[in-house]
Prior knowledge:
The protein is α/β, with parallel strands linked by helices. Helix content is 25%, strand content 20%.
Amino acid sequence: MRIGGFQSFSLSDYPGMTAAIVFTQGCNFRCPFCHNGALIPACGEGCASIPEMTVLRHLHERRGLLDGVVVTGGEPTLQPDLPRFLRRIREMGYAVKLDTNGSRPGVLRRLLAENLVDYIAMDIKAPMACYDRLTGVAAPVRAIRGSIRLIARSGISHEFRTTVVKPLLSESDILAIAEMVPSGSPHTLQDFNPEHAYDPALRTFVPTPDREDSLDSKTA
């Protein structure tokens, strides 16, 4: 596992649980609004790396004091050792929350089949027609649609999230994204923090808090 960061305690990243956060290194998207730009390259000059055993040792020592572990990124599903790593965490008795961009449904399918995750949070970044603009790459929209369906039908706790990047998304875009969320699945709107945006041009944006923070879960 390539680990670019580790936070030993959080009350806000795993709903209802105290958790540690593991930040994997490397992402296949180049979202201009990303606030974790240092985690985008798989590695490179000046790329910090935390030994996997250091993280596992800390988690072992914190058994009984933490409820869960959040694995985020970067994009965790790019890590070949992800199933093995999650298995080690599960063996310590932790619940596992995975954050993903939904680009690799095959990996998600394996993790679900092996019962290695308890909660999945997936970002839905834009209506499919403008996904490339919000990801900075030729987005794998078919895979993203597949992940949305897979997560919604998984039977485990989950949520879909959208960062409201007003310079890049209109109100009609946000409504279109909400229509993409399967019935019964929660959809959370997140504020855009421009301060450390991957695209420097977005760092001068001044946000205005004029919307609700979340959408109610849809009902069938």
